[in-house]
Amino acid sequence: MTRSGVLVVRHTSPEVLAAATAGRLLSAVADAQAARGIAHVSLTGGTIGGKTLAAVASSPARDAVDWTRVHLWWSDERFLPAGDPERNATQAADALLDALPLDPSTVHLPPASDGADGDDLDAAAARYAAELLAFGEGAEVPAFDVLLLGMGPDGHVASLFPHHPGLARDDSSVVGVRESPKPPPLRVSFTFGAIARARQVWLVASGAEKAAAVARGVAAGDVAETPAAGVFGTERTLWLVDEAAAADL
Ligand SMILES: O=C(O)[C@H](O)[C@@H](O)[C@H](O)[C@H](O)COP(=O)(O)O
């Protein structure tokens, strides 16, 4: 795996981290649109991911972006019925998306457990992989301009958990994950291969309980132990952390 342009940026508090990440995201999307007309952004679930989206919602700079030309994806999703409050997409809608003038055809919601494939997790994962392929311009997935990732205290990113069978899968861009250690147990997740297509990968981590995993991830240690150690963008990889999460660096 190539390590390209890895940088750690520390912020003084979770609030500053969320606000700065929101500002950075708006600039990166505006830059992508200036260069290529459209932007592909992959969102994340989790606490700091949600705070970042809320900070985008309240930023005056949010109008710097043409939201009708932003493709939104999710690197992982909880396999629950559409609209379930535990779904990452539902939380993103509440925090930000409902307030934006989005074109529904560019909001690529991950499959829900009451969708076209019913509760067939593997079919749902394959459906999302097919949608990514359709926008990949010859590759399996789009070259995401920004792919945001929260990280668990165990070092998981998306729904790629330490020592979990989903980690080793490289036969598809999206996998169905069973027996997730973090509830709910069923999820769909990008694989490492899908994440590696992103131009920029941003890992966002807040709080002392993340400090040990941040240190292992930044050191690019054992990926099976710390999945966050194995994600890189083709152009840039940013670790965006608050002081508490940076404590072991
Ligand atoms: O579905 C999920 O649970 C998330 O996608 C997951 O990967 C999350 O981003 C991390 O667990 C960090 O979450 P916190 O910021 O809440 O710790």
Automatic annotation (TrEMBL):
Gene from which this protein is expressed: pgl
Protein name in UniProt? 6-phosphogluconolactonase
Q: Which GO terms describe its biological process?
A: carbohydrate metabolic process; pentose-phosphate shunt
Record's catalysed reaction(s): 6-phospho-D-glucono-1,5-lactone + H2O = 6-phospho-D-gluconate + H(+)
Note whether Hydrolase occurs among the keywords.
yes
**Species the sequence originates in:** Kineococcus radiotolerans (strain ATCC BAA-149 / DSM 14245 / SRS30216)
The EC number(s) given in the record are: 3.1.1.31
Pfam families xref list: Glucosamine_iso (PF01182)
**Which InterPro entries does this entry report, sorted A to Z?**
6-phosphogluconolactonase_DevB, 6PGL, Glc/Gal-6P_isomerase, NagB/RpiA_transferase-like
